[in-house]
Amino acid sequence: MNKKVEGLTKETEAANYLSEQGYQILARNYRCRLGEIDIIARENGYLVFVEVKYRSNMEMGFPEEAITIHKQKRITNTAKYYLLVNRLPESTPCRFDVVVILKKEIRLIKHAFDAYGS
């Protein structure tokens, strides 16, 4: 399976997992000129921006370690753009979660990081 197909498969697994956890999926693979957000959802009054990270093994470390400060800033700026184009107030309660898939294990990290550049 090529990386793009595998990535989409893992994002589908993550979206299904989040739905089972009570998240309402609003968008997948949201893209704009600033970046991409894998999943946008609502959960317990929050607008949640979700990054999905997958690793088939530990050779490159834990999947969540790939979410660098630079990546966090890009996700944050993309989230701000999403709020702007959807005419949502900046005061909208938002959160940044990460779904980690290591082999066949799925883990959810709520509040994985804070917004940067605020």
UniProtKB/TrEMBL annotation:
<protein>
    <recommendedName>
        <fullName>UPF0102 protein DHW61_01105</fullName>
    </recommendedName>
</protein>
<dbReference type="Pfam" id="PF02021">
    <property type="entry name" value="UPF0102"/>
</dbReference>
<dbReference type="GO" id="GO:0003676">
    <property type="term" value="F:nucleic acid binding"/>
</dbReference>
<dbReference type="InterPro" id="IPR011335">
    <property type="entry name" value="Restrct_endonuc-II-like"/>
</dbReference>
<comment type="similarity">
    <text>Belongs to the UPF0102 family.</text>
</comment>
<dbReference type="InterPro" id="IPR003509">
    <property type="entry name" value="UPF0102_YraN-like"/>
</dbReference>
<dbReference type="InterPro" id="IPR011856">
    <property type="entry name" value="tRNA_endonuc-like_dom_sf"/>
</dbReference>
